[in-house]
């Protein structure tokens, strides 16, 4: 095609002119070509001008790829559809890519190029999608950056916006941080050079200023963001879209965005350059597993240009995880690998592990695997003072307290699963987002886990330490010194797991209690390292900044570590290792 596209006359007299340059050789007005500009057809397969009479304009769309699913890409303010060039090149072997120039940007011309309100942009995008894919209702993932991300969220929220919507990916736009930055935007725009003597100078500025950290991405997208100056000074390049004129629309782009994003039922992906961009509402939503979050800290605001390959990988994994464009039937189970069954091979190592565990000096292992001599009935009745207090000389939970923590942990897990069944959000949903494993596909198994955990935690008739041993004493000969032999998971699994009374045995409850202590300890350490966790969520929900109490947090971590590792109190009526059953 020709090396330049003639300037289009501005329509409607708004003074916004279409860009004159889109290809690899550009006459800079001085008789020489500006090397560095990349041709669009190196990345896209086709460009199409979609005329929409009802929208009063012609919209440029860059198309690439083949496949059942469509990635419909919306650029940010001041950018153009070519900003998606590198992402399109990476994904077009698997997806259809459509990247449109929005109103007032790139090669799109309309009767009112100055109307960049959120409602107008949403209607434009919906009309272009319908013109391209409405008849076939192609499964679509909306992908938007910055302003385009805000438009994508609002379009996805429209009941008839994209009827075949199967996902939403938003890049570096968050309501709270965007609206907080609006008072400073005028100064940011004023700091940009108003014009460039050549396209090469513009490319150099983009690289040096950090506006685009990828030279290749800038070479293909920046020409579409610029235009020749007026005829009196056509040796200069100026911005295609005068963003300072769009200031009346800024707040409307972002107001209410987080609530719309979180309230959407479609799978959601948020790509950010850093966690500092998350606002309070999205931070809570992320902790609740309501969307998938990906961070690319090496990128600037134009994440998809600076880290195009990584962005493409994240979009690819996101669409595969939620089976975009695939039939939504049951997920097929993987075929069993060739060779002998795994379970018989695992019996030997498992038995060896149990044998070693029985002889281990570890208290946690003994609590899980061993049953010692019959306890005095007094030690299994009541919660007297010595059974619930902590010995100051040995700062750890008593055995009764660990049983309580274990039961509480089981009940909490059952409650969490019930809550997830009711709300559709929770730990299993987050697991699916992070791993792609659909745990809710086995509903009966999940309900069984809920029932067992709840009844095991609440059942007051689960075997006591003495009962579990007494049931088996009549069947087993006494050991040395007329003491009952130990009972373990191998020799008596029915008694060990408390199946008779449909509840966990006390040894298991002690183990669950200790595991819960260590799990809470790990979550606190993880929160200290990452900045995300239960204390931060508690602070967001209540306004009490527990996570900021560093000294108290360290003490809390230390206590749970000591309580989980040390043996605990051996008061007269406390449950000791010698009275586990």
Automatic annotation (TrEMBL):
TM segment ranges: 546-566
Record's catalysed reaction(s): [phosphatase 2A protein]-C-terminal L-leucine methyl ester + H2O = [phosphatase 2A protein]-C-terminal L-leucine + methanol + H(+)
Keyword terms, alphabetized: Hydrolase, Membrane, Serine esterase, Transmembrane, Transmembrane helix
InterPro entries with a match to the protein in the record: AB_hydrolase_1 (IPR000073), AB_hydrolase_fold (IPR029058), PPase_methylesterase_euk (IPR016812)
Annotated AB hydrolase-1 domain residues: 72-313
Gene3D superfamilies: alpha/beta hydrolase (3.40.50.1820), Chlorophyll a/b binding protein domain (1.10.3460.10)
EC number assigned by the record: 3.1.1.89
MF (Gene Ontology): protein methylesterase activity
Top-level enzyme category: hydrolase
Superkingdom: Eukaryota
Region Disordered: start-end pairs: 466-485
Family membership noted in the UniProt record: Belongs to the AB hydrolase superfamily.
PANTHER family: PROTEIN PHOSPHATASE METHYLESTERASE 1 (PTHR14189:SF0), PROTEIN PHOSPHATASE METHYLESTERASE-1 RELATED (PTHR14189)
Record-given protein name: protein phosphatase methylesterase-1
């Amino acid at each position: 095609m020709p090396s330049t596209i003639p300037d289009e006359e501005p329509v409607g007299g708004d003074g916004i002119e279409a860009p004159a340059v889109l290809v690899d050789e550009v006459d800079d007005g001085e008789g020489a070509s500006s090397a560095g500009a990349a041709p669009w057809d190196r990345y896209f397969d086709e460009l199409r001008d979609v005329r929409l009479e009802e929208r009063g304009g012609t919209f440029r769309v860059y198309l690439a790829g083949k496949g059942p699913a469509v990635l419909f890409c919306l650029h940010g303010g001041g950018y153009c559809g070519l900003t998606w060039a590198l992402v399109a090149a990476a994904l077009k072997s698997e997806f259809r890519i459509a990247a449109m120039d929005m109103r007032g940007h790139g090669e799109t011309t309309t009767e009112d190029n100055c109307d960049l309100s959120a409602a107008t942009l949403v209607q434009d995008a919906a009309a272009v999608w319908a013109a391209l894919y409405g008849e076939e209702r192609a499964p679509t993932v909306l992908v938007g950056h910055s302003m385009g991300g805000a438009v994508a969220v609002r379009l996805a929220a429209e009941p008839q916006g994209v009827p075949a919507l199967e996902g939403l990916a938003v890049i570096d736009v968050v309501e709270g941080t965007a609206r907080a930055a609006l008072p400073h935007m005028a100064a940011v725009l004023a700091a940009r050079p108003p014009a460039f003597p050549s396209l090469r100078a513009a490319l150099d500025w983009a690289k040096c200023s950090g506006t685009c950290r990828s030279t290749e991405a800038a070479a293909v997208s920046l020409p579409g963001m610029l235009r020749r100056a007026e005829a009196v000074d056509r040796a200069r390049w100026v911005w295609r879209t005068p963003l300072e004129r769009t200031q009346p629309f800024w707040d409307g782009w972002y107001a209410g965005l987080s609530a719309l994003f979180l309230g959407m039922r479609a799978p959601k992906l948020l790509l950010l350059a850093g966690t500092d961009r998350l606002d309070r509402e999205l931070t809570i939503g992320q902790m609740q597993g309501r969307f998938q979050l990906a961070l690319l800290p090496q990128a600037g605001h134009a994440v998809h240009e600076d880290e195009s390959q990584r962005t493409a990988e994240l979009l690819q994994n996101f669409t595969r995880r939620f089976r975009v464009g695939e039939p939504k039937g049951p997920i097929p189970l993987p075929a069993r690998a060739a060779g002998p069954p795994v379970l018989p091979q695992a019996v030997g190592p498992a038995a060896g592990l149990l044998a070693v565990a029985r002889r281990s000096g570890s208290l946690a292992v003994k609590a899980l695997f061993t049953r010692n001599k019959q306890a005095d009935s007094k030690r299994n009745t009541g919660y007297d003072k010595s059974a619930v207090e902590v010995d100051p000389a040995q700062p750890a939970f008593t055995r009764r307290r660990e049983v309580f923590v274990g039961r509480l942990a089981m009940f909490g897990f059952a409650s969490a699963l019930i809550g997830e069944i009711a709300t559709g959000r929770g730990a299993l949903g987050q697991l699916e987002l992070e791993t792609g494993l659909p745990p809710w596909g086995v509903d009966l198994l999940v309900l069984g886990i809920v029932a067992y955990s709840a009844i095991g935690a609440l059942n007051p008739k689960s075997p006591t330490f003495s009962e579990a041993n007494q049931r088996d004493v009549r069947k087993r000969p006494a050991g040395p010194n007329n003491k009952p032999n130990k009972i373990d998971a191998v020799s008596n699994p029915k008694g060990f797991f408390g199946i008779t009374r449909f509840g966990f045995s006390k040894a298991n409850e002690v183990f669950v209690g200790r595991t819960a202590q260590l799990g809470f300890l790990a979550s606190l350490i993880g929160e200290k390292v990452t900045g995300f966790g239960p204390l931060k969520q508690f602070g967001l929900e209540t306004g009490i900044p527990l996570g900021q109490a560093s000294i108290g947090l360290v003490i809390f971590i230390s206590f749970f570590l000591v309580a989980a590792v040390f043996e605990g109190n051996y008061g007269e009526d406390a449950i000791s290792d010698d009275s586990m059953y």
